[in-house]
């Protein structure tokens, strides 16, 4: 072969873009590669949530109850940041799959601007709305004051959370989930280290109580955000964060919101559910509210790895949807749903076998054990079903049908769970029976998930195979 032809072939090969691993790596190995780092980082996140409450519980049961009442507000903030992050993730992954560099840049910079604006709104809410929220709870003065202090700090300092979520989503969308794990885990570890120091006043720090727990949380989030920014700038060449000549792009924002808003609504429903459940439970006792808050901390050890698994599967499904590869899509869906259910079965067994040991982490009183042990055992019966529903929900998000997840969540948590819990509580007068409402709601969620999955298969997946 003449030298000039060989040189031309070499130049062509060098200039040909190398396909992202989400389009070529074996699906099973790819799912592990994408999901395992995120599962580990979310386990660390679950750990710092538990450690936060564990140290606060040593202050008093009232302080623990205050955090339980603050949880709906925190959950709403997380719902907005993570939900819009899902939209950014899906739009960016599709653009990468289609190899549209302009669309990739638009998705990244418009997504960053959107999350920045949302953070500003929550910061304003931290100044104006927290006190009225807690005054409406009907709790004791000590619980109310502790809740106001904690919630104002985490809202006013929330920019770190929003930017951390954004930078992690960029890394995740481009397949750099190890970097995501490092960013997320670093922020969580910082929080864990600072919790006892700031809460109890160690190493020369003043003892700040619940305010210390809040400051430790936002410090960890800001450090995670700074690390995420550094890794995107230095180690993520697939995405540009340059704001030079930035203008909002209506179509890109519409696509992000079309996927992200249903996800935000879906997760925000959890805040409404938690608030209303707290009102139902506080009619029995403040200890019942504390048990509910502790349950949410403990179940995060089971649910967080599943969410990490699904966060890893969303870009795989979205990328191969954009690349028109239905075989890789369906294999990723089957593997992720199966893995999610398997994790949930393990979680169910742990909750069934050692609920008293789990509650003991939070210095549970005899009354908390009396209410909490049956609560953990009853609610955990629904874990395997929840694993299936969560896994299927990630498919809806990846393919742009997030409204299905929103409807499912609305039915499960508001239309079924709350009325059942209220009715059971009033009819029986027994807080133990109220927990069965969670199992009933999950059965309804399963039925809807199956119906919606069949629609997706008929409308999206099967036509791609013809």
How would you briefly describe this protein structure?
By secondary structure, the protein is mainly alpha-helical.
Termini gap: 42 Å
Helix content: over 70%
Identify low-pLDDT runs: 1-17
Radius of gyration: 23 Å
Counting structural domains, the number is: 1
Mean pLDDT: 84
Class from helix and strand fractions: mainly alpha
Layout of secondary structure:
Blueprint: H1 3-15, H2 27-57, H3 61-97, H4 101-128, H5 130-135, H6 141-156, H7 159-173, H8 177-200, H9 210-235, H10 250-282, H11 286-322, H12 326-353, H13 355-360, H14 366-379, H15 383-398, H16 402-428, H17 431-434, H18 436-465
Helix pairs in contact: 2-3, 2-8, 2-11, 3-4, 3-6, 3-7, 3-10, 3-11, 4-6, 4-7, 6-9, 7-8, 7-9, 8-9, 10-11, 10-16, 11-12, 11-14, 11-15, 12-15, 12-18, 15-16, 15-18, 16-18
Question: What does the model show?
Answer:
The protein is mainly alpha-helical and 466 residues long. The protein has one domain (25-465). 84% of the residues lie in helices and 0% in strands. The protein has 18 helices and no strands. The chain has helices spanning 3-15, 27-57, 61-97, 101-128, 130-135, 141-156, 159-173, 177-200, 210-235, 250-282, 286-322, 326-353, 355-360, 366-379, 383-398, 402-428, 431-434, 436-465. The two termini are 42 Å apart. Residues 1-17 have low confidence and may be disordered.
Considering the chains and any ligands shown, give keywords for the structure:
466 residues, mainly alpha, 18 helices, globular, disordered N terminus
